[in-house]
Amino acid sequence: MDNTPALIVIAPLLAALLAGLAVWIEERLSYLIALTGLAISTFSAVKVLMQVIDSGTIQYRMAGWAPPMGIEYRIDLLNAMVLLLVASIAFLNLLASYKSVDQETNDRPGSFYTIYLLFVTGLLGVTATGDLFNLYVLIEITSLTSYAMVALGDRDRGPLASLNYVFIGVIGASFYLLGVGYLYLKTGSLNMVDVANILSGIHGSSTVLVAFILCMIGIWIKMALFPMHVWLPNAYTYSPVAFARIVAPLMTKVMVYVMIRLMITVFGFDYVFETLNLADAVVWLATIAVLAGGVMALSQKNLKKMLTYIIVCEIGYMVGGAWMGNQLGMTGAILHILNDALMTFALFLAVGNMVYRLKKVDLPDLQGLFGKMPWTMAGFVLAAFSIIGVPPTCGFFSKWYLILGAFEAGAYHFAAALIISSLICAVLFFKVFEICFFDPMSEGHGHGDSHSHVTIEEAPVSMLIVSGLVSLSLIVAGLYSGTIVNTIILPFLK
Amino acid sequence: MTDLLPLIVAKYNYWLYVILMMIGLYAMIAKNNLIKKLVGMNIFQTAIILFYVSIGYKTDATIPIIQNAHGGQGAHSAVIHAADYINPLPHVLMLTAIVVSVATFGVAMALAVRIYQRYQTLEEDELRMRLADIGLEE
Amino acid sequence: MRFLGFIIVCLTGALLLYGTGEFPDWGDPDSPASTHLSNHYIEKAIEETQVPNLVTAVLADYRGFDTMFETAVVFCAGLACFLLLRDFSQKKERFYRHTPTGVILHVKDSKKTLKVGKEFEHMDKDWVPSDLIIKTVCRILIPFIQIYALYVVAHGDFSPGGGFQGGVIFGSSLILLAISYDLKTLVRRVNEKVIGIFAALGVLIYVGIGVICMSMGGNFLDYSKLAPLVPGDPHHIRALGMLGVEIGVGIAVTAAMAIIYINIVSEGRHDEGL
């Protein structure tokens, strides 16, 4: 029996528990355990992706029970891609986090790693599972760990931001749970494929419609689609940087994955786009989200907060693409899950390096950074170009598919919003570059060291290597986006 | 109205859960005190539990524990009729949901304690004032 | 905000009620929910798992994977409360009571401590005179509550109960101890380190059983593969697997309850509280 699919999720869970035990024995051990767990998980994810590309969908029965009786993991191309993405980003971030965790969580790094691993377990489980209720439990694990993490960040604002997140997060998860309840009442099953088979006979039912709306609203709240985004900026800004670096790229993207999974696998394309007439309204909502995210980002004074609004904007891209109702739009949305996760990760890695040295990242604090932290800034510039959508980087290609999809569907307003928001991002980032370029200290006398200010140097090597690696991967992902589309996304959508 | 009444009577459990859920949701949105909001959250989650458990109910059926399963000789000879026992699945799901809601409630309480330690208040408008006082805006 | 909230609430309620329009009547035995999966569980579970309590059978076996994460949620909540609230800094002031005279000493200097023994005893900021009736009744009750909790865990296969229920009952006995005596008594009895380890250990037992099943060549949590390891009737191996899992759940829940309670009531200082 090949247990690799289960291992992707079990390895981090087991590592989380062992790390939790290790806290009481030797604090340092927990880091090594965490690293090992995520390495096994990443390795398994690679193996599973290879298998899926070679031989199609993998089904794994938990406890050996056949679906729909038991819970099954059902890994197809889309899952496998997102699994690898989540596992590898979590692993890389852990590599980069060793020093910043020590700095930020003052005395309890071991427990930090436990919560971190549980969070990753939740994300991986959400991605791998083929069961609607199991999905809910895992969403709750990711949420609960995020609540704790957010509160551990900024001492003044962290707990408040976190409690707001709790209220909105609980409403989101409960709406999803209610949606699953309505589906269960109508179909009697919880397995995604089984539910889909039964649903195909009862498309006209009002209960199914309500179930669909409830599931979508729940997931939208969790992914922070405008205007349900209010929890996100504060929560991500005030969380510890080692956690912000993983939650920002992954949490929302995994929720977009869940939305696409529900649309394609559970309810089906026919139901979503032919029985219901909601697509136009949702694309308009996404258009507004894109524009609003961009505009709100413009008015921010803190770099971290500005980036969180860019996330809100990017969510708009993916939701709009997925609801375009054609293959190009969906391709763009799925490709953007991958690209946006990488771009946001690269951006937050750079920001993490800055926070490590500067402690706070309000825009005026960044003056002269090009001179002081050249490598960090190089990574930042590359990631920023990718967000703007400059050609060889990956951000360009997914935007290209999204725009093509918008034209095919006749959603010109969405295409326009996409271009406008790219321009806004360009303005935004060049503003940041400009601030970083001028060094206020060099204007005085030549000997800067006689000043009382602390000299700022480049971030530790471990953080720089990861940052550089991820930034380069943006170009690699861009160059190979044709391959990704042809081997993973198009076969999946067939 | 005459049509509505039998509809409500036949499904009054669902109406009750919706009303309960609305009460909880309203408290979560409109109340000023954070603890009251938390209580609203609990009512909201309990309403969902009520909904699920009522899905599992079957008239003229008993709790899902098979009788005389290991009791003496004719243990497995008796045929089990599905109609005699209520649906176990919603109960299982709700055990999970209860645990999740308790866990969320615990974490939220811990957060409330942290906020109280820092700001000496749990009223939202006062919190906003305190934040403005120390130069942090919403 | 209130008005907006009211509108949102009404819209949600209307949406939910609209959805109930096509629901089967309450208690309808032929509704899809009560026939599709439910009949299989009711008719086959005892044959397949040897556990007459169907809720336990579905919880710990058919959907055992869910339950594992549910236990992880409890562990996570305990850990989160610990991380958020635990305050290791020394308390600034202390209160002592001179037992023979009843004089209360308020020591403000954190470095000065008094030897607690026959003459002085620790006390909380608000001194509650010890109530002999409450203490005695609780002292008698607590062991029975704990025995009952163990029964609920162990008998979960046959009667209503299981790991969560038993764990919560056991946790409540610890909380009762803290309420009837004081928090210090509880903290002295259950060491923080021990409950921390137990919380992780409980989940680890669950995951560990799953991993053992995997290493025996089965799927994750497939208890039937444990048969060679466990003496006794291999026929009942699934029931035994479930029992093992439930014990793990019980341990984790007990420990998490204690951690959450102690940290919240004492605001993380583990000295005094309810």
Can you offer a commentary on this structure?
- The complex is a heterotrimer of chains A (494), B (138) and C (274).
- With 494 residues, chain A is an all-alpha fold.
- Chain A contains 20 helices and two strands.
- In chain A, helix 14 packs across helix 20.
- The longest helix of chain A has 32 residues.
- Chain A is globular, with a radius of gyration of 22 Å.
- About 2% of the residues of chain A have low confidence.
- With 138 residues, chain B is an all-alpha fold.
- Chain B has a single domain, classed as Helix Hairpins (Orthogonal Bundle).
- In chain B, 65% of the residues lie in helices and 0% in strands.
- Chain B is built from five helices and no strands.
- The longest helix of chain B has 32 residues.
- The radius of gyration of chain B is 23 Å and the shape is elongated.
- The mean pLDDT of chain B is 85.
- Chain C has 274 residues and is mostly helical.
- Chain C has a domain of 179 residues.
- Chain C is globular and about 75 Å long.
Can you lay out the helices and strands and say which pair or pack?
The complex is a heterotrimer of chains A (494), B (138) and C (274).
Chain A: H1 4-22, H2 27-55, E1 58-61, E2 72-75, H3 77-104, H4 109-128, H5 132-152, H6 158-187, H7 192-199, H8 206-223, H9 232-237, H10 241-267, H11 269-275, H12 279-298, H13 303-322, H14 327-358, H15 369-372, H16 374-388, H17 394-409, H18 412-437, H19 461-479, H20 481-493
Antiparallel strand pairs in A: 1-2
Helix pairs in contact in A: 1-2, 1-4, 2-3, 2-4, 3-4, 3-10, 3-14, 3-19, 4-5, 4-10, 5-6, 5-10, 6-8, 7-10, 8-10, 10-11, 10-13, 10-14, 12-13, 12-18, 13-14, 13-17, 13-18, 14-16, 14-17, 14-19, 14-20, 16-18, 16-19, 17-18, 17-19
Chain B: H1 4-10, H2 12-30, H3 34-55, H4 88-119, H5 124-133
Helix pairs in contact in B: 2-3, 3-4
Chain C: H1 2-20, H2 32-35, H3 38-49, H4 54-62, H5 64-85, E1 94-98, E2 103-107, E3 120-123, H6 132-154, H7 163-180, H8 183-189, H9 192-215, H10 237-265
Antiparallel strand pairs in C: 1-2, 1-3
Helix pairs in contact in C: 3-4, 4-5, 4-10, 5-9, 5-10, 6-7, 7-8, 7-10, 9-10
